[in-house]
Amino acid sequence: IWTGAMWEKKAGHGIDDPTFVQPRRGMSAIGG
User: Fold this and answer.
1) C-alpha–C-alpha distance, residues 14 and 32, integer Å
2) Which residues lie closer than 8 Å to 7 by C-beta, 6 or more apart?
């Protein structure tokens, strides 16, 4: 299940999308 979901995700998690809004906290601040 995890592997299938991983392949469906865009590279960069959609950060190149013009509608992307950067979160206020970085990944290290939320445990990522």
Assistant:
1) 17
2) none
